[in-house]
Write a structure and sequence with these properties.
The protein is globular, with a radius of gyration of 19 Å. Helix 4 packs across helix 5 and helix 8 runs antiparallel to helix 9. With 280 residues, it is of the alpha/beta class. The chain contains ten helices and ten strands. The protein folds into two domains: 217 residues, Alpha-Beta Complex (2-enoyl-CoA Hydratase, Chain A, domain 1); 48 residues, Lyase 2-enoyl-coa Hydratase, Chain  A, domain 2, CATH 1.10.12.
Length: 280
């Protein structure tokens, strides 16, 4: 859920009071969300969850957004749950009810990312720990700065991987590596994460946002609905047998084949011109 270090600076002001906990910006058809608690390594609070969910709902509702980039302010991407947040002590007996926090905050967040109608890129600019790491891994593509790292910090405080980590990690790197990462809680440098297939790409620190935005602009010009359905097909196929996956492919292809983007793609291919996709 968290890197215990995330709460170390919680008494210090992390940003001017007038600033949002999630900054929102647009680059053409690309929406950029920046987690904005830099003094706390952008660790999650109930308030930040609220702003993040609202920003993600806005992405889903805005037909002009065709790709999303999520990053963190300052020197970290996200250190997971802020253990000092009052939301952690919301149990009936005053003791932490971690399961309730998962149900209230992290399960809806992970499902929201998985259901977004646009491709999602995590631009990991520093430490991504606990739920922060798995929040990033739940995005469609992860680009990390060379100095970034991923830490499954849960075992350090007697918990298991959450925010989708128990599902994501074995599928990304296999059972042996997933267990190794989760049980040891060791820091995994971005270059090693790329080599083992945990993330899409590791780039020099100075190139992180340029690389993420370049990829996002490229995806934004592609058939957005087909990209989102590709995610859906891959995730669903992991729970199906082979014939079930073939049936799902037929159903999704049937739906996409009736969309304007398919007709435009075929027409552009036959005319040897660049396509102009519009569906979302």
């Amino acid at each position: 859920m968290t890197d215990p270090r995330a709460s170390a600076a919680q008494s210090a002001p992390d940003r001017p009071l007038s600033e949002p906990l999630v900054r929102v910006a647009d680059d053409g058809a690309v929406r950029i969300l920046t987690l904005n608690r830099p003094a706390q390594l952008n660790s999650f609070t109930a308030a930040m969850h609220g702003e993040l969910r609202a920003a993600l709902d806005s992405v889903a509702a805005d037909g002009g957004v065709r790709a999303l980039v999520i990053t963190g302010a300052g020197r970290g991407f996200c250190a997971g749950q802020d253990l000092a947040d009052p939301d952690m002590n919301a149990g009936a007996d005053g003791a932490p009810d971690v399961g309730a926090v998962i149900e209230r905050q992290y399960r809806p967040l992970a499902n929201c990312i998985a259901d977004l109608p646009v491709p999602v890129i995590a631009a990991v600019n520093g430490v991504a720990a606990g739920a922060g790491a798995n929040f990033a891994l739940g995005c469609d593509l992860v680009i990390a700065a060379r100095s970034a790292s991923f830490i499954q910090a849960f075992s350090r405080i007697g918990l298991i991987p959450d925010c989708g980590g128990s599902w994501l990690l074995p599928r990304l790197v296999g059972r042996a590596r997933a267990l190794g990462l989760a049980m040891t809680g060791d820091k995994l440098p971005a270059e090693q994460a790329e080599r083992m297939g945990l993330i899409w790409q590791c780039v020099d620190d100075a190139l992180l946002m340029d690389s993420a935005l370049s990829l996002a602009r490229r995806l934004a010009a592609m058939p957005t609905r087909a990209l989102a359905q590709t995610r859906r097909a891959f995730d669903a196929a992991s729970r199906l047998d082979y014939d079930g996956a073939l049936a799902l492919e037929a159903r999704l292809q049937g739906e996409l084949g009736r969309q304007a983007d398919f007709a435009e793609g075929v027409a552009a291919f036959l005319a040897k011109r660049a396509p102009s996709f519009r569906d979302r």
